[in-house]
Amino acid sequence: MAMPIRATSPATANLAGKRFMRCRSSASVTATRIRNFDQAFRLFSPPKERIRCSRFFPPLFAVSEPIGGASAVTYEDLTNSLENVEVFDVIGKAIRITDLWRDRKAVIAFARHFGCVFCRKRADLLASKKELMDAAGVALVLVGPGTVEQAKAFIEQTKFEGEVYADPTHSSYDAIKFAYGVLTTFTPSAGKKILELYLEGYRQDWELSFKKNTVERGGWQQGGIIIAGPGVNNISYIHKDKEAGDDPPIEDIIKACCQ
C-alpha cells in the first residue's frame, strides 16, 4: 500500500536546506584538502623509480635491523656495499666513504638533510662530547645527503666542529639501507620533538630543506649513526633511525666509541 505523502513545513524545508549546504560545503573542503595533500605529496615525492605504491601511502622502508641477525647483512656485506661509495669534502674532493674509518676510529652521523632541525640538535649533542672523542683518538664526522654547497651552509650555520661530507647521490644511504618514507617522517613523536626543539631555540633551515635535490630525494630520508674503524670491516656500532628524531642515547655512543 502506498504511503501517504506528508506536507513539509517551511521550517523543516529550511532546516533540510541548511543541512544540505553544510554537507556540500564539507565535501568541498574535503576535496580541497585532498588536492592540497596531493600537491604537497608530489612536491616532496622521490623519483618515480623509487615509488611502487599508492600516492597517498608512500613507501615505508624497513630499518633498524641488527647486523648479524637472520635478515640483516653482515659487517663485511655492509662495507663491501660501501667500498665504492664516494662522498665529498667541503672543497669538493671525492673520498671513499670507507676511508673515513680505514685508518682511524670514527663516529659518523648521517643527517636526514642539511636543513633538518633534528640533525642540528644531533650535531650539537655529538659535538658536546667532542673533547671525550678527541681524548680517545676518535674522529667526529657528519655526512649529509646533498651538495657541497649545502654542506658549507650547514657548517656556517651550526658551527659544527667535526668533519662534514656531502653525499649528493645518496649512495651511502642506499647502501646502508637507512629508513625512507613519509610514514617515517610524520609521526606523533617526531611532531612532539619538533615543538620541543623549537622551544630550545632550534630552527629548520627551510631554504636548504627546499633545495631541489632535497625535495626530490631527501624529504623522506632518515639517517643514523655508525661507529667504525680502524679497519674497513671494523664496525662496532650501528643505529638506524626508525623515524625522524630517533636519537640513540648519547651514553651508548660514548660507550661504543670511547670506552
UniProtKB/TrEMBL annotation:
<dbReference type="Pfam" id="PF13911">
    <property type="entry name" value="AhpC-TSA_2"/>
</dbReference>
<dbReference type="GO" id="GO:0009507">
    <property type="term" value="C:chloroplast"/>
</dbReference>
<dbReference type="InterPro" id="IPR032801">
    <property type="entry name" value="PXL2A/B/C"/>
</dbReference>
<protein>
    <recommendedName>
        <fullName>Thioredoxin-like protein AAED1, chloroplastic</fullName>
    </recommendedName>
</protein>
